[in-house]
Amino acid sequence: MDDVDRQLLVLLQQDAAQSYAALGQAVGLSAGATHERVRKLRERGVIRRTAVEVDPAAIGRGVLAFVMVDSTKWVGDSGDRFAAIPEIQEAHVIAGSAAVLVKVRTATTEQLQDVLRRIYAIDGVSGTQATVVLETFFERPVTP
Amino acid sequence: MDDVDRQLLVLLQQDAAQSYAALGQAVGLSAGATHERVRKLRERGVIRRTAVEVDPAAIGRGVLAFVMVDSTKWVGDSGDRFAAIPEIQEAHVIAGSAAVLVKVRTATTEQLQDVLRRIYAIDGVSGTQATVVLETFFERPVTP
DNA sequence: ATTGAAAGCTTTTTACT
DNA sequence: AGTAAAAAGCTTTCAAT
């Protein structure tokens, strides 16, 4: 992982649809060498995948909320229970009490309420504290 | 936005590097028609961009935390102040008091502390409450 | 809006440095 | 690791439906 790799990652986070020739020109390498470096970044798992980024509002997910979930039992192995709720975009085990922090996207606040109901139905969950987002300043890739 | 468009979005969120021929086969369309649909999804802004997804730990961002930021003044136009801190991956204005919720990725907890210091330095910020993530269950695309 | 095919690039491989 | 060039494959455009 040198400077060129880091530069390539930044460029590919901005636009993964550009050609290796263009990428190579930007970092001062031939298309072939650029291709080989990107291939290795994938192989080593630094690049996990290439994906399109979708506007949440355009697909009926205009409401964003973060929900703190409290539990009376150990939550370390209940990831699947959260994954089973499709409106949950992220779920993290957090420090403090037995707790999980989830990021939820729904079409309406009514649907958000329904997601909270389904979270409550998870075994051991003793409480939720939802925080609704009014405006997203930015969401951006993590730069190296 | 019909069912085929939604299917295409799901497939492209999983792997945007596949060919239009493969995509078309999956949804029962020719490569040309698939290309045209994807082009329109881009044009309409449903697809924002194509990007690689990078493993945060591999680029020295193994520590993840969510930080609630309280402020004594209106925060609606201080997005740039948060954007100026590169370790902040997301920043959202949240309901409740004058507050912002940010997602931070750093290499170490010492660096996290330094980010908190820089957040405190933002005009009007009166307090922060950091929650460190112990384990990420999942982070996934929003499905239509 | 979709098809099928042609033209023009890109990726991917290979031989060489 | 990098370069350069060839082969294979893909994107993009276009006439037709």
UniProtKB/TrEMBL annotation, chains A, B:
SUPFAM superfamilies: Dimeric alpha+beta barrel, Winged helix' DNA-binding domain. Keywords: DNA-binding, Transcription, Transcription regulation. It comes from the Bacteria. GO terms for molecular function: sequence-specific DNA binding. Residues 1-62 form the HTH asnC-type domain. It holds the Pfam family HTH_AsnC-type. GO terms for cellular component: cytosol. SMART domains: HTH_ASNC (SM00344). GO terms for biological process: response to amino acid. This is Lrp/AsnC family transcriptional regulator. It comes from Streptomyces cupreus.
